[in-house]
Amino acid sequence: DAVPAADRICSERAEVDAPWRRRSGVGARGVQQRPGSKGGVAGQMDKITDDLANMSEDMKRGASAFLVNLRKDDERLKDISQAQEKSLDNLEKQNEKGKKLLWSNQLGFFCTMAMLIISIVIFFMMIPFIIFT
Asked: First and final CA of the chain: distance in angstroms?
């Protein structure tokens, strides 16, 4: 190549048609302009204004959708919180009931003797198992 690299790059750039460069008689996006249509900077500004308005409407719709989802999530969280509070209250009641049963002496003398006899019988039934293994 006898052509310097800088000259090659400049000629390649000249061949590439950029969308922001105006061609004669052709509007934005390669569409042929009609004789009565707005062209140039004013037409581009109108197009940009419309695009921005559409984007802002889309963003508003997206934010509204997020708001609806956030409200639903908030309601679910409130329901979960209420269920947890109810379960916690129920647990505290059962805990108090268990403490009362623990400290009250409801086992009678005969019940205690029956438990003692059963534990002794089980102990003597385990002795042959321990010896033979």
From this structure: 96
Please give the angle made by the CA atoms of 101, 103 and 105, to the nearest 5 degrees: 80
Output the six-digit token pair for 57.
Answer: 């409407």
Residue 109 binned pLDDT confidence (cut-offs 50, 70, 90): confident
SS3 assignment, position 21: coil
Q: SS3 for 31?
A: coil
The whole-angstrom separation of Cα 78 and Cα 72 is: 10
CB 28 within 8 A of CB 43: yes
SS3 133: coil
Residue 109 C-beta-side C-alpha neighbours within 13 Å: 0
Residue type, 79: D
In the 8-state DSSP scheme, what is residue 33?
A: P
Largest CA distance in the chain: 116
In 3D space, the residue among 56, 57, 53, 28 whose CA is nearest the CA of residue 43 turns out to be 28
| pTM, 2 dp | 0.40
